[in-house]
Write a structure and sequence with these properties.
Layout: H1 3-23, H2 30-37, H3 42-47, E1 57-61, H4 67-74, E2 78-83, H5 86-98, E3 104-107, E4 120-126, H6 135-144, E5 145-159, H7 164-170, H8 180-192, E6 196-204, E7 207-215
Parallel strand pairs: 1-2, 1-4, 2-3, 4-5
Antiparallel strand pairs: 5-7, 6-7
Amino acid sequence: MSPERVYERWVSKGLKLVFKLLYHQFAWAYDTVAWIVSLGMWKDWVMSVLPFIQGPKVLELGHGPGHLLIALQGAGHNVVGMDESREMGRLAVERLLSSNVSVLCINGYAQFMPFCNSHFDTICATFPSEYILDPTTLSEAYRVLKPGGRLVILPTAWFARDYIPGRLVALVYFSSGQPSGLVDGYTKPLLYSGFQVSTEVRNLERSKTLVILALKPRID
């Protein structure tokens, strides 16, 4: 293995450890770090999934500090949040209470969703970790979605090529262009789980986000 590949592997492992700690022991610093590494664009990236949310009943997997939960409830959806991190759950509940928003937040794993069959119109997950492609997660998502419902995944974002500060940050954290390999990595497991899959690129100011739409077919 080349020295470059060894370096990339160690950097990748290091970043995964950092973000795992941010999502648990150091959850209180999550918003600040996310703002720094995204150059202030993190919330805009997360909110870029809103146009793809359909139906009254919505489940957010890995809700994090709760910003999208508040936006979804404000848009008129009946929202449930689910996250395996107790620390993030506490942050989200505090934010919901301070915003006078009532949303049910559940501590649990996406591989075991405590919901009845065909319950949700949309499931969404923004910047999820590897759990989202676990076959058990996808099987559970398929089960609890209504026929015609959709799983909306935002796996990554990248900066505009002419945005110099973003290009520097992208060398460490983000993609500098649409990651075709990443799309394939999501498409195949979703298709295997029975979903119909399409992708959308959202053009934002100085950046773009990739949104993957997985549709549960309707029953004829």
